[in-house]
Design goal:
Layout: H1 4-13, H2 23-32, H3 63-78, H4 81-88
Length: 97
């Protein structure tokens, strides 16, 4: 399938019997489309856990901006802001330590 959403639509239609999708994508799609709430989840075992970091791209000459963004993220994690945002959104994740 070309996207997580297409895979889930195929699952709903019965075109496929199972769909393997990225957790944050499923979470977001379920928030915007209540018809996806009825999907049954199964444990991904025996697949290994796959933590995925989120990244951003900056121009190589933007070292000050890179340092500033890194510092801001570290501060937001340290003071609990990121965790509060995740909890308020009921997003199934924990901030990096």
């Amino acid at each position: 399938m070309g996207s997580d959403e297409l895979a889930l639509r195929a699952l709903q239609r019965g075109t496929v019997g199972v769909a393997l999708v990225w957790g944050p994508s499923l979470w977001a799609l379920q928030k915007s489309d209540p018809s996806l709430a009825g999907l049954r989840f199964i444990a991904p075992k025996p697949l290994p856990d796959s933590p995925v970091s989120v990244g951003a791209i900056l121009l190589a000459n933007e070292t000050f901006l890179r340092s500033s963004v890194d510092d801001a993220i570290a501060s937001l994690i340290a003071d609990g802001t990121i965790e509060t945002i995740l909890n308020r959104a009921k997003f199934p994740a924990t901030p990096a330590k």
